[in-house]
Amino acid sequence: MGALFLWLKFGNILTILTAQQLRMNWIIDQIKSYEIDLESKISYGMPAFFFNKKPLIYFAAYSKHLGIYALPATHLNYKTQLINYKQGKGSLQVPWDKDFPMDIISQMIQFRIHSIECELKQIPNRVNKNINKT
């Protein structure tokens, strides 16, 4: 097959892959910006970050959405802010054709870091309920 045929048939794939890569790279950059001791690995078949050996966030690109998994307590805390997105217990689906909720995802990462720190210090997690809520 010629390059022109491939472009006509599959050209939009490049745009989709670029959008996926930009969003996934943003999550990675956001997590690394906190300058905490992180471990990155593949867990449950998807990229994941661990903080103090506790899962911080998992994420994966699918054909129609970006899946973000920051554990049930985190998603429960931001459920009302994420009402425009499909959610499950501990999961969030952000379709590629919808706005990417950077502020909320950033807050979720902060919330999860704070939760892990509290857990390690054995501080009750109820303090977290109002962290970074808008």
Which secondary structure elements does this structure contain, and how are they paired or packed?
Layout: H1 3-32, E1 38-43, E2 46-51, E3 54-61, E4 65-69, H2 72-77, E5 86-88, E6 91-95, H3 102-121
Antiparallel strand pairs: 1-2, 2-3, 3-4, 4-6, 5-6
Overview of the molecule:
Helix content is 42%, strand content 25%. With 134 residues, it is α+β, with helices and mostly antiparallel strands. Strands 1-2-3-4-6-5 form a six-stranded antiparallel β-sheet. The radius of gyration is 17 Å and the shape is globular.
Largest sheet, in brief, is: 6 strands, antiparallel
**Count of distinct structural domains:** 1
User: Whole-Å distance between the termini?
Assistant: 53 Å
Helix proportion: 40-55%
Number of strands: 6
Could you say what the CATH architecture is?
A: Alpha-Beta Complex
Name of the CATH first level: Alpha Beta
- Structural class comes to alpha+beta
Overall pLDDT confidence: 79
In terms of DSSP E residues, the strand content is: 15-25%
CA gyration radius, whole angstroms? 17 Å
User: CATH topology, anyone?
Assistant: Aspartate Aminotransferase, domain 1
Separate helix tally: 3
Order of helices and strands: HEEEEHEEH
User: Judging from the principal axes of the Cα atoms, what is the shape?
Assistant: globular
Spatial strand sequence of the major β-sheet: 1-2-3-4-6-5
Summarize this structure as a short list of keywords or feature phrases.
Aspartate Aminotransferase, domain 1, 6-stranded antiparallel β-sheet, 134 residues, 3 helices, alpha+beta
Summarize the structure.
42% of the residues lie in helices and 25% in strands. It has helices at residues 3-32, 72-77, 102-121; strands at residues 38-43, 46-51, 54-61, 65-69, 86-88, 91-95.
